[in-house]
Design brief:
Blueprint: H1 17-28, H2 37-50, E1 56-58, H3 61-71, E2 79-83, H4 89-96, E3 100-104, H5 115-121, E4 126-132, H6 141-151, E5 154-158, E6 166-167, E7 170-171, E8 178-182, E9 195-199, H7 205-211, H8 238-269, E10 275-277, E11 284-285, E12 291-295, H9 298-307, H10 333-341, E13 342-345, H11 353-365
Parallel strand pairs: 2-3, 2-4, 4-5, 5-8
Antiparallel strand pairs: 1-9, 6-7, 6-11, 8-9, 10-12, 12-13
Length: 366
């Protein structure tokens, strides 16, 4: 168990109690806990703040991803080209949809999908490409968009790590046919748990709304509504919505701190023997959910930072190593190289100037 005195890799950020608790109490005792106006106002504000035409709130990023897959036409037996270098729900959700994950390789320098490997994985049963912006670093969206368009398949962005990141001066989440965000406890922004779905085609929004609530349409009397397709219990609640609204008040400043710390490490750690910083393509702006460092000896980096009270780790396990994905394993040399060298260090809003300076000092001395 990590000591409470250790500087963590991830940390829950909540609005000031004085601002949140009075409005939260009103919702809790106001007689409308489930999906309602607080959710719809959160959807409007989130879309406006991050540059999307429309957003749907969900109970989790995983639920949003499930509906994204269904909205893009993924059916049982279809193949989805995806990455193994991600949190497990990215790919268990493909299985949940009855589809087959096809693991493309990643770039050894970034951990993000390698477009050449993605193209090689496209086959007659491919219905979608699912790209993760790992750790908040934008993947090569232009190349992936081109591959998707040439092969007539959907491009879905998993932006769970990447709130506030940008690619080619465009908000992350605006390039794919669908995109999802996560508001799980330790992400840039939390609603305790929650998620959001962005759909490029506005004509799909009505069906997506029904899919997130049993297949029922809101606003139609329950005695008159007709379910035409099985849906799920994925709707966001007013409790999560009101928390989200107050998170939006301070999220820009918090993300800016992630970015400032990330840029600091980029500048200060480049050229340190045994270490490599993640290259950032021109026009990309990571949101540095966690800082990705590559080291000749990642275990040694973890030990040296532990000595100064800083947590460092690989954080995730490549998904294809899990037994549930054993039938889909294939050789992924880029991922193997990336994971061998990978070590994440904290760079979030809770990392102050003194913290980041002593991290750099410890790594330089190492």
């Amino acid at each position: 168990m990590m000591s409470e005195s250790m500087l963590p890799i991830v940390k829950v950020r909540m609005p000031p109690a004085a601002a949140l608790m009075p409005v939260l109490e009103k919702v809790l005792y106001g007689g409308m806990l489930a999906e309602g106006e607080h959710v719809y106002e959160f959807e409007r504000r989130f879309a406006a703040q991050f540059g999307f035409p429309q957003v749907l709130g969900f109970s989790s990023g995983t639920g949003a991803l499930h509906v994204a897959l269904l909205s893009c036409g993924v059916e049982p037996g279809d193949e989805v080209v995806t990455t193994s270098m991600t949190a497990e729900p990215t790919n268990t959700t493909i299985l949940q949809a009855g589809a087959v994950p096809v693991f493309a390789d990643v770039e050894a320098a970034t951990g993000n999908l390698d477009p050449a490997s993605v193209e090689a994985c496209i086959g007659p049963r491919t219905r979608a490409i699912l790209v993760v912006h790992y750790a908040g670093y934008p993947a090569r969206l232009s190349a992936l968009r081109d591959i998707a368009d040439r092969h007539g398949v959907a491009l879905i962005e998993d932006c769970a790590h990447a709130l506030g990141a940008r690619y080619d001066d465009t908000a992350i989440g605006a390039v794919g046919d669908a995109a999802i965000f996560s508001f799980q406890a330790i992400k840039h922004m939390t609603t305790v748990d929650g998620g959001a779905l962005v759909l490029r085609d506005p004509t799909r929004l009505r069906d997506a709304r029904k899919l997130r609530w049993f297949g029922l349409e809101k606003g139609v009397p329950r005695t008159e509504v007709d379910i035409t397709r099985v849906g799920y219990k994925y709707n966001m609640t007013n409790v999560a919505g009101v928390i989200g609204l107050h998170q939006l008040d301070g999220i820009d400043a918090a993300i800016d701190r992630h970015k400032a710390n990330g840029r600091f490490f980029d500048a200060e750690l480049v050229g340190v023997p045994g270490l490599s910083v993640t290259p950032i393509a021109d026009g990309s702006e990571p949101s540095y959910w966690i800082y990705t460092l590559l080291a000749d000896d990642s275990d040694d980096v973890e030990r040296r930072l532990a000595d100064i009270g800083v947590t460092a780790s690989k954080l995730h396990r490549p998904n294809h190593l899990h037994s549930v994905f054993a039938p889909y394993r294939r050789d992924l040399p880029g991922l193997a190289d990336f994971y061998r060298r990978l070590v994440h260090i904290p760079c979030g809003w809770w990392v102050d100037d003194g913290d980041r300076a002593r991290i750099v000092d410890a790594l330089r001395r190492g």
